[in-house]
From TrEMBL:
Record has Cytoplasm as a keyword: no
Signal listed as a keyword: yes
Signal peptide interval: 1-31
Name of the featured protein: ABC transport system substrate-binding protein
Length: 354
């Protein structure tokens, strides 16, 4: 039989030892059940970018001011080029594709949605959507494309040094070379009609450029300002008998309703020269300009650098497309009563005849 002193001294000690063993065992079990993906304390996380950040899904908000072939081509070129470089749609990139339907208020609401969703990057196609995105966020990187003059639009401080969270690619078209096409088609042309959206900076810049270029070529520009696509046909009709040709710049509102201009031009046998090739494919006679699909690809190359952490918008110069090409539409020329010069056909990069 144990003495009272032995029990008094020994039992508490044994209980303490047993408790210590239980606490240690529980601690080891807890450590062994930590998620395997947890990084050791103090270890830097992997840099952003496709294969370097395993398991990350990027969110890219894409907004264009309106849907028409040129802007659509820029969007599809961007997505295709991203996929070629490992950023595949619905695999490691989720695109939120939006159209503002020509309304600035819609563009602002969409940009606010992108900010609320915490998107990794915003692609703004055309000037108004880029302005809306910049107005909404100064933190999310914004890339624009199909913007004629980003400095005049107050998107960047300069073409060489944007200085903020915005950069991208410009679609500045060679206006003087395009107006020369009118003289090549109709040597006695003196007056050129230009319809444009008075609310888009992009368009005002091109009208001023057209006036300057026309002056050099011995022609004048007749302007017709509109505020909605429904006014395009009436504007074109108001110029009948006053102009020798129409010039359709890369004005998003007018391009989206170019069929209205073409209807008047074909009925009155007035040649139409466009600011970009998709308008020629839609029925204008010719253009000398850029490829919007390739412009989208070029913009994607910039996005890749941003997402991989290799560059920041503030330090990335605005890029332009180096190569221009002549595209002509033989069927459109026939409908407008114009004979295409053989010299123009011979140097064309693309001839549309069906």
């Amino acid at each position: 039989m144990l003495s009272k002193n032995f029990l008094t001294k020994t039992v508490p000690a044994a209980f303490f030892a047993l408790s210590l063993l239980l606490v240690t065992a529980c601690g080891q079990q807890s450590a062994n059940t930590q998620p395997q993906s947890a990084a050791p304390q103090g270890e830097a996380s992997a840099p952003a970018g496709g294969e370097d950040q395993a398991g990350k899904t990027y969110k890219i908000g894409v907004v264009q001011i309106v849907e028409h072939p040129a802007l659509d081509a820029a969007r599809e070129g961007f997505i295709a080029q991203m996929a070629k470089n490992g950023f595949e749609k619905d695999k490691n990139v989720v695109y939120d594709l939006q159209s503002a339907q020509g309304e600035m208020s819609n563009a602002l609401s969409i940009a606010q949605k992108f900010q609320g969703d915490g998107d990794d990057l915003i692609l703004a196609i055309a000037t108004p959507t880029a302005q809306a995105a910049l107005q909404t966020t100064k933190e999310i990187p914004i890339l624009f494309t199909a913007v004629t003059d980003p400095v005049a639009a107050n998107l960047v401080a300069s073409m060489e040094k944007p200085g903020g969270n915005v950069t991208g690619t410009t679609d500045m078209n060679p206006v003087e070379e395009q107006l020369k096409l009118i003289q090549e088609l109709k040597s006695d042309a003196k007056s050129v009609g230009v319809i444009y959206n008075s609310g888009e900076v992009n368009s005002k810049v091109q009208v001023d450029m057209a006036k300057e270029a026309a002056g050099k070529l011995g022609m004048t520009i007749q302007e017709a300002a509109i505020t909605s696509a429904t006014e395009v046909k009436q504007a074109a009709e108001s110029m009948v008998g006053k102009v020798d040709a129409f010039y359709v710049p890369t004005d998003n509102m007018v391009v989206s309703a170019i069929s209205a201009v073409l209807t008047v031009a074909e009925a009155q046998k007035i040649p139409v020269i466009a600011g970009e090739e998709n308008s020629v494919k839609s029925g204008a006679i010719a253009t000398y300009g850029i490829d919007y699909g390739k412009l989208g690809e070029q913009t994607a190359d910039m996005a890749l650098k941003i997402l991989k952490g290799e560059a920041k918008p503030a330090d990335m110069p605005v890029e332009k497309q180096a190569e221009m090409k002549l595209v002509v539409n033989k069927l459109a020329a026939e409908k407008m009563g114009v004979t295409l010069p053989q010299a123009m056909l011979d140097r064309a990069a693309e001839v549309i005849d069906k």
